Amino acid sequence: MEILKVENLSKVYGTGEARVEALKQVSFSMERGEFGAVVGVSGSGKSTLLNCIGGLDEADKGKVFLSGRDLFAMGENERTIFRRQNIGFIFQSFHLIPELDVEQNIIFPPSAGLQEAGAGTGGRDFGGARS
Ligand SMILES: Nc1ncnc2c1ncn2[C@@H]1O[C@H](COP(=O)(O)OP(=O)(O)O)[C@@H](O)[C@H]1O
Ligand SMILES: [Mg+2]
Q1: Using CA atoms, how far apart are residues 22 and 130, in angstroms rounded to an integer?
Q2: pLDDT per residue over 15-57, tens digit each?
Q3: DSSP string over 12-44
Q4: Which residues line ligand 1 (CB under 6 A)?
Q5: Pocket test for ligand 1, best of 19, 44, 51 (most atoms within 8 A of CB)
Q6: What is the 11 CA–ligand 1 centroid distance (Å)?
Q7: Over the Cα atoms of the chain, what is R_g?
Q8: 70 has which bridge partners?
Q9: Cα dihedral sign for 83, 85, 88, 93?
Q10: What is the DSSP letter of 97?
Q11: Domains of the chain, residue spans
């Protein structure tokens, strides 16, 4: 089943001499369970792409469908909740909780969301430190 579909994603930063085309009509899709890596030299648009498909930023043109949902058609609040419930992030060097390991950092936001929603057993126990 296709879990991620990216269609003609384009994003430009700046104007005039400072204009940078960070994404130029990027299209691809991924199946559920598929593992992917975005590879490219510094400045090639990896972070811009991940920010757009992660619902943290909006592209200028194109669409992103996650589990069939059009990310850019959602309002900011709706996208924030969708992001928290469906997407895990590990940022390069910030927004990390140092006491948690990588897996725990990824699942902490959706887990917190489940507890907030009263799902009870949905939350994870972060008590035991791991090496
Ligand atoms: N907020 C921004 N304002 C202006 N230019 C940006 C901004 N973010 C990224 N860029 C530019 O867009 C291009 C792609 O950047 P980025 O997505 O960070 O690449 P990567 O993650 O592959 O290093 C680079 O030329 C970068 O300088
Ligand atoms: Mg980057």
Answers
A1: 38
A2: 999 999 999 999 999 999 999 999 999 999 999 999 999 999 9
A3: EESSGGG-EEEEEEEEEEEETT--------TTS
A4: 13-14, 20, 22, 40, 42-48
A5: 44
A6: 10
A7: 17
A8: 65
A9: positive
A10: -
A11: 2-87, 89-131
Task: Report d(CA 115, CA 118) in Å as an integer.
Answer: 5
Number of H helices, E strands in the chain: 3, 4
Nearest ligand to the CA of 24 is: 1
Q: Give the whole-angstrom CA distance, residue 108 versus residue 100.
A: 9
CA atoms within 13 A on the CB side of 55: 25
> Does the global pTM surpass 0.85?
no
Per CATH, the homologous superfamily of domain 2-87 is P-loop containing nucleotide triphosphate hydrolases (3.40.50.300)
The phi and psi torsions of 93 (rounded to 5 degrees) equal -150, 15
From residue 127, how far is each of 45, 101, 112, 130 by CA, in Å? 37, 12, 14, 10
